[in-house]
Amino acid sequence: MRNNGWAKVGYVLAEGDSNAIYFREVIEHFGLRAERFDSIEAALGCDIVLLCGYGETSMTESTHLETWVEQGGSLIACGSAWGLEDLFGLAGAPNHVSNGVLQPVQTPLWPEHAAPIRFFGGKFFAHLTGAKTLLATTCGRHAITSCQRGEGSTWYYAPHLGQTFKLMQLGRGVECDAIGPVDGSAVLDDGILRSEDGINLDFEQDRTQVEGESSPFFGHPHCDALKELFIRLLNEVIGAKGLRSLSLWHWPNHATGAAMVTFDCEEFEFDHVSRMQRMLTMFGSRTTWLVAMPGYPADAYRQMRTWGYEVGLLYDADDTSGWHPEKLHIQFTAIGRLSSVPNIVSVRPVGGRWRGYTQFYESAQEAGARVSLSKGGRQPGTQGFAFGTCHPFHPARKDGLHLTLEIPYLVFDPGSVTSDSVSDCILVQTAFRHGCFHLVSKPAAVLDPACHSALRRTLSLCKQHRLEFMTPEEVYQHERARRQARVSIKTLGSETILQLTSDVEIDGLSLLISGPRIEAESKGRELTVTPVHRYGKTFNAITVRLEAKQALEISLKNTAETLQAA
Questions:
Q1: Which of 135, 204, 274, 421 lies at a C-alpha separation of 20 to 30 Å from 125?
Q2: What distances in angstroms separate CA 390 from CA 106, 225, 439, one per listed residue?
Q3: 19 three-class SS
Q4: Handedness of CA 504, 505, 509, 515 (dihedral sign)
Q5: At how many degrees (to 10) do helices 449-464 and 270-281 cross?
Q6: pLDDT digits (tens, 9 = 90+) for 61-90
């Protein structure tokens, strides 16, 4: 392929910054081909280097970075300038901003249909010396800047993405009731500890309201928009250097996003399940039944397996023995045995309960659960993106070890707690951010005409927005396999060979390749290349199936139109 070298991206996490590990989570979830390095010197063989978190450089590292940039490298610092203010064209003492909002502007960097973006943390500089401002806060602070240095460039991304991720998506540790909004749309000081008590977003400034509805809701996924802004900046830098990038897309078959329906089963009338199943089948929606103890009869679980549905645990910690790992392990094992599904995957505490910070994730992982479905609101005033995201994510310990995957829910009990108009707004924003529209209901909702109608309506809208119906287990398996897939790139004259391998089968894996149009073939067979618009750029999308432990080679060439234009 001509004039389209492949970008080599490396990143370094700041030592001593416990929030920096979440930059890695962002990069891996977005499927970027980027390599982590333990030292700056080791990363200088890359085209683009990311310095992530609150870090510092030594005098030797500063000298090497300056030389590397002058010779054509592109450097991006996120959260702090790492002591390289001169290199980034910044001046003055940095000002730490614990809580700020980014101002929308007409630029390819700004995510489409995004409201002003809330962030937590970052070092901001009052003065520029050679840099230009690309994005500012609502208070006028320089949020994203760029600076040309010799043959290279530097870019400063002031908001601390990792800190925002941790504080917004994980929220606060819950040890006591929180204080809810003044409008009465959510009551948090009720003596019951739920995940809602850990919301770090502001009830006054971070919620929106639909005309005709009395309750405001969290209508914008702030953290997802901030992550997208980071990815768009990186794509912009790659494009400016005339390079191509390769990403493994979040969802199968380059779908816009995913849709997920889970049910809290606290009463065990199987007729409700059967009637609900008939409605779900009309839309091709697979679902997960989270069952509390003592659960359904054995015949009910056999029927669920025949339908191809998933069974999980609705964890009941609401008794005198308290909230502890042993109880979770006992219930998780019991439901697995009762359902004859020994390797169940998903768990959620009953009634939206929560306690502590990451203790539940650690307990769930120890019990054998792979997916938590726990973060979300259950009152009209906490619907939507209460934790700033509609994407699955791995909480992480300080040592960097990933914990159980969290898939937050956005809509609870549609037709009762969540109105159609609010649910529609949340769904549309989820599609804009290419996330997972996770809806929670109850089997008995089939008896309520308003709830039944709302479910039918919402499932129909999911189909219209090209959201892929998935179960938690399918999301987990695809996310895990996608992250662990190995990709190598070899360029032979005008042709590029991609080699992909995986330890497990991946069906519907979508490759997004930036740059001009290409043609692709594998094993002598032409592959379909579809142009798709993602995160501000048009990509070449190729969908493939990877067999376990078998290499797949894909040959890429420029199209005749691209060659003629060149």
A1: 204
A2: 24, 10, 11
A3: coil
A4: positive
A5: 30
A6: 999 999 999 999 999 999 999 999 999 999
